[in-house]
Amino acid sequence: MREGIMKESLFGKTLTELQTIVLAEGLPRYSAGQIAQWFYHKKVRTIDGMTNLSKAGRDKLKKKYSTGLYDARSMQESVDGTRKYLFPTKNGQFIETAYIPEKNRHTLCISTQVGCKMGCLFCMTGKQGFHGHLSAGEILNQVVSVPENEKLTNIVYMGMGEPLDNPEAVLKSIEILTSPRGFAWSPRRITVSTIGILPAMKDFLEKSQAHLAVSLHSPFDDERAYLMPLQKKYPISHVIDFVKKYDWHGQRRISFEYILFKGLNDTPAHVKELARLLNGLRCRINLIRYHEIPGVSLHSPSIHEVEQFSDRLKTKGLISTIRRSRGQDIYAACGLLSTQEND
Length: 343
Ligand code: SF4
Known about the structure:
Blueprint lengths: L7 E2 L5 H10 L5 H12 L13 H10 E2 L7 E4 L5 E6 L5 E8 L4 E4 L3 E3 L8 H5 L1 E4 L2 H10 L8 E4 L9 H12 L11 E5 L3 H10 L3 E5 L5 H7 L8 H10 L8 E7 L7 H11 L5 E6 L13 H13 L3 E4 L13 H7 L1
Parallel strand pairs: 1-2, 6-9, 9-10, 10-11, 11-12, 12-13, 13-14
Antiparallel strand pairs: 3-4, 4-5, 5-6, 7-8
Helix pairs in contact: 1-2, 5-6
The structure holds iron/sulfur cluster.
């Protein structure tokens, strides 16, 4: 188990939180800015490495705090270069982080919860049940503790868990990622996905500038509720009504994720209803070919069927992208590897 687990972590704290900590420990207020700079700009991983803090100050901090930085326990690499990391959690389980290299893009797909309580039928993470929220520090640790950290161009909150079911930590992690005193990332390189928790979505759109990706998967209420129980609480029509009214100014984008299940949500009737539902909204649909998971009677369409669906969308004026499947040989479908490990 990782070092310093019982102590509170310093990493993943905002400048204001660090100020409260240093003042309580009798260090000067400006030490907070120094700590932020060591963590977020210089990527230092130990308190002793923060050499412009006094030795006495560092010792005081070390008594109560750990950095909260820790390495992945293992890594598996796919033939296509995708790497999946397993990070340990406080309760002895594992979360997954996927590094996905493409020509000019190096994307990190990060987790926000241990397991998930949303129970989507097609999802292996959902089958694990819910085991806890990750803190902002644990979310950001995935970013700085993968060896590819310096190469990353994009971060997607699409790993294990529903990000907007853990909105406080997710928003705080985005604040630290994008603030000039944090990692100073552009919010345009960050995408948060959600299955449509409406109140948290409103909050997210107000408080951050990152892109939003909504998991759609079916335009029909009954079918979507069968796939995603949250539909009963927040129907997709309400979610889309809301995003249609939102002012998508500048370069901020909304996209929809659509997993294609053979013979279920891939018919011309679905295309027609999607066109009706999304009419007037400037957006992109990301088509994802379903990969079968054990114990679920949903099936993968062929590549040809996915292309056919994409072409039908096009005839209705909807822009779609077919997501290339990555890392299939290492169970890159989210949740499979950690389920195996947790078992
Ligand atoms: Fe949770 Fe997302 Fe899986 Fe649904 S698809 S169970 S929201 S992790």
